[in-house]
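Progress narrative, work stream C.
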Amino acid sequence: MTEMTGAPAQVLHTLFRSDQGGHEQVVLCQDRASGLKAVIALHSTTLGPALGGTRFYPYASEEEAVADALNLSRGMSYKNAMAGLDHGGGKAVIIGDPELDKSEELLLAYGRFVASLGGRYVTACDVGTYVADMDVVARECRWTTGRSPENGGAGDSSVLTAFGVFQGIRASAEHLWGEASLRGRTVGVAGVGKVGHHLVEHLLEDGAEVVVTDVRTESVRRITDRHPQVRAVADTDTLIRTEGLDVYAPCALGGALNDDTVPVLTAEVVCGAANNQLAHPGVEKDLADRGILYAPDYVVNAGGVIQVADELHGFDFDRCKAKAAKIHDTTLAIFARAKSDGIPPAAAADRIAEQRIAEARRR
């Protein structure tokens, strides 16, 4: 393990706790010259090299960064398994404000750390990182996806992420209301950035009424200027309490479903692009007890990882879109398993993913 200078001992002592998911490897990285501080977490390589994006975020502490990397990488193991990919789960987080701290030197240093893992981890874009950043990282690391088409990559993965989430919403509508259509339904989208604004386009094309919010006013303005029929509200708290909301789509950071939000949700369905939407174990049961159908986040937001995985073998958009379209059927299968086993959909998805990983271990 490569330790970040000054990393608190209590962080290192928790890396292999069973409740953190039993990670195979956690690398704490520091490059003094560029100011890089990063965490690379490999949860599992049972199905193949760990695959997951790089998040660039101003964490309040190193402990918070490690915790996020552990949670996100575990989620990637389950996401890749449910997407039918031959990849395990990994995630990297870079500590800092991407608007202030990101530099070519820092990204190159990060690429060298990823390369030092020898292909056990394949990286890509995430919150705070973009295609142009991956082009820089790839100069030091061949295990980099999410690059620009000009540099042999597939480009922006948010397009297929949004498409996959839309398929999850369609499946939720079919399961709950008997028709895979959003016509006449009201969908609230929290976060209309890289993925959310593409999702809004799909929803409008399908006949939905859309309500949006985002902490960035410019993101909301981009949507409402292009689509005046879209209604904007001040914040997420207002959105989730909106009367007549059929679907809530959290598309920003994690923890959107918690002890404060679940009791006041008005929507019958939650299906969005954000990772780690359930703030803690037990929230999935709280949703079920309220009669709210939850489409597991790591299942419906897998379109992006399907795209970047395909990039490793010669990217073909139509092939990827066809794979992402299967998220509709996968989501329906999870709802069916949840009903037959008498458990929430989140638990059903975990069981299916764990079964695939276990079968791979036995081979």
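Work stream C, second folded protein:
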Amino acid sequence: MAHIIVLGNEKGGSGKSTTAMHVATALARLGHVVGGLDLDLRQRSFARYIENRHGTIAARHLDIAAPELMELPEIDPATLAEGENLLDKRLAAAVAELEGRCDFIVIDCPGSHTRLSQVAHSLADTLITPMNDSFVDFDLLARIDPESYEITGPSVYAEMVWHARQLRAKAGLKPMDWIVVRNRLGAQEMHNKRKVGRALEQLSERIGFRVAPGFSERVIFRELFPTGMTLLDLRELGVDRLNISNLAARQELRDLMRALNLPGVSVEF
């Protein structure tokens, strides 16, 4: 059975699709068979990133690995059983198609609460929640007291993840490994950064997730999207000597992949 990795965050702009593509491509370049599903049926950022990659590989005759993009198949509503949901059936069919031939399935969820996203979270063996390193994004996970910065309770997204965990337990599936990834960390050890870090540590013990470092804000991520390439493909793009920023970004990807601790994955790049 394929190991399912879900990227989820109900707020947009957290680097979710960029993280999804780099995780999927890193796994593919390490020799694993990777399938990709984009559940944002409107924006399709992850799907477009994969399509761009396959286009560049074909145009430049590159011999590099890529995740396979799977679209949600069309289902005849007349074939649904009584009470069966059409979107559930489409997602189940896509996952069933991929899991027989893939080692990993990477699913990118939209930056909003949808039926597809809720179902996908219940399928996650590993859930990655990228967040910008600020209390604006932290509010998605928990409410805090504005004076003491003490956590007063879980927020809407954390409650949705808890529900997904309950569904997995009832189905007899193994517990979900939930990792909150701190993207766009500031270069300086700022006061706000320390406060967010302390709040995440406190919350992680209460609701059960691990914290991992993500990607700093870098122009290169926006430049890579049109070609579908990632930090691991710079030499194929003709970059013979990596600058300090590129080297630091690749190290961030290594650190993230090691922190995910995915089964059967040895991070060697």
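The first strand starts at residue 3 and ends at 7. No further action is required on this item.
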